[in-house]
Design brief:
By secondary structure, the chain is α+β, with helices and mostly antiparallel strands. Helices cover 24% and strands 45% of the residues. A seven-stranded antiparallel β-sheet has the order 1-7-6-5-4-3-2, with helices on one face.
Amino acid sequence: MEAKPNKKELRITRTFNAPRELVWRSWTDPKMVERWWGPRGVTNPTCEVDARPGGKINIVMQAGSELGSLAGQKWPMSGTFREVTPQSRLVFTSAALDDVKDILLESEVTIELEAIGAKTKMKLHIVVTRAEQKAEMALQGMEMGWNQSIDKLVEFLQNR
């Protein structure tokens, strides 16, 4: 099946009541990423993050029982870090994979962090660069999923 070019973009801006260094580590330390990544009802049994240019990111999200009929399903994603400017900017590719490891959806994710006193302003920008036809549901849920994930990051930072 041929991939269709897709120019879907998503921008999320949030201000966290946490210092920039902690927010940075929450994006780059795999033990921390594992705790908040993904929409509600999802855990991350695999979470590998090597935040350096050329380093890999590999996360497998797994649906919990609260997601009903989806419980137990696994949704792998992998990518490569393109830019890493400590405590201020991360750019990585992200490929959502299906159960036979074919790419469903590719995107480029940019995170910019700015210290505002003791708080941190985050700008998240996702650009879908490729989407297969069977990725339509993932595209439709992209905004909700990313917002839920960032909500989980807010909760994670509050509990630190």
